[in-house]
Specification:
Layout (H helix, E strand, L loop, with lengths): L1 H26 L1 H32 L7 H21 L1 H5 L4 H41 L5 H15 L9 H27 L3 H34 L6 H33 L11 H22 L17
């Protein structure tokens, strides 16, 4: 009996020690400052990279207006810049007396991040539907040899300036409409929480963030996957084709993983206070969460899509009207 008790106590002591260490880390102001200041510095670095790239693009093609590529880098600059400021003043943000203000400062950049990267989904959807619609209209033979040749030609024309042309008006309207609905719903939730701090409405707000992240995950999975497999079907191998295949595949994988992690963690935080992201005493959780869902994905995507547009005028590179 004594041996059983001693063995159980010895086996539980490492777990208790680890739990005690974890609680000490969470409650330590030094760990909190280290984690959140590290996040602030990382966000500031990514924001600076996006701004520098935006300036380089503008200097390269000053004759064009706000293209998709420029808007994407501008939004990256804004999102990461806002995050850097918020985490730079993390003590004031997390200790705001009115809880809804804290939720706005923490959730609004997440929605902007969604709008930034769903822009890539929008562009890929435009490419996919444009190629298929033109091919079907001309040939009306879904899998003929001539259809494949035409699709191949359309891909080379459309993808040579990948992520630099704006989508059609119809898809642009869908993009604006979806984002408008999301922001209106979120603002209504914030307004209600400002009037009546209700735990049920706060739960609904987190579930809504999960739904928004799932929409982004679904968009990247559907249109990133479709464009990737459309590129793989072409028989002719070339450096340009392989590069576009690499860009679409890697960006799709990175964004799917980051939005999947966001869905899981936010869903868990909605029902488990130990996984809450809106508190000051979860610095390590916040560090890994924001690193995996925003900082690393942004840095990797900016690196993958770092190529500058050509100086020559392209028919696929239009300013916003």
């Amino acid at each position: 009996m004594r041996e059983l008790l001693s063995s159980s106590s010895s086996s539980s002591s490492p777990a208790a020690a680890l739990r005690g260490f974890w609680e000490d880390v969470n409650e330590s102001p030094a760990w909190q400052d280290g984690a959140f200041f590290s996040l602030s510095a990382a966000y500031a670095l990514v924001s600076a990279v996006a701004l520098i790239q935006l300036i380089r693009i503008q200097r390269r093609v000053p004759e064009f207006g706000w293209t998709t590529q420029k808007v994407f880098h501008l939004m990256n600059f804004i999102v990461n810049g806002v995050r850097a400021v918020v985490f730079g003043f993390h003590v004031h943000v997390f200790l705001l007396p009115t809880k809804v203000y804290k939720l706005v400062l923490l959730d609004l950049p997440g929605l902007l991040f969604f709008s930034t990267y769903i822009l890539l989904v929008l562009f890929w959807a435009e490419i996919y539907h444009q190629v298929l619609a033109n091919a079907t209209h001309v040939f009306n033979i879904p899998f003929s040899y001539f259809l494949r040749i035409f699709i191949q030609w359309m891909i080379w024309v459309t993808l040579r300036d990948l992520a630099r042309s704006l989508p059609t008006d119809k898809l642009r309207i869908i993009y604006v409409a979806v984002n408008s609905v999301i922001y209106v719903i979120q603002v209504c939730i914030w307004v209600y929480l400002g009037i009546n701090d209700n735990s049920l409405v706060e739960l609904v707000s987190k579930i809504f963030i999960v739904v928004v992240s799932f929409v982004a995950l679904l968009g990247f999975s559907v249109y990133g996957g479709r464009l990737f497999f459309l590129l793989r079907r072409f028989p002719i191998e070339s450096k340009g084709r392989q590069k576009k295949l690499y860009e679409v595949g890697t960006v799709t994988a990175i964004c799917c993983v980051c939005f999947l992690i966001r869905c899981i963690v936010v869903a868990l935080s909605a029902f488990d206070p130990d996984v809450s992201l809106e508190v000051l005493d979860h610095p390590i959780l916040d560090l890994f969460y924001y690193m995996l869902t925003e900082i690393l994905p942004s840095a990797l995507v900016l690196f993958i899509l770092r190529k500058l547009p050509p100086k020559r005028v392209s028919a696929q590179y239009h300013p916003i009207n």
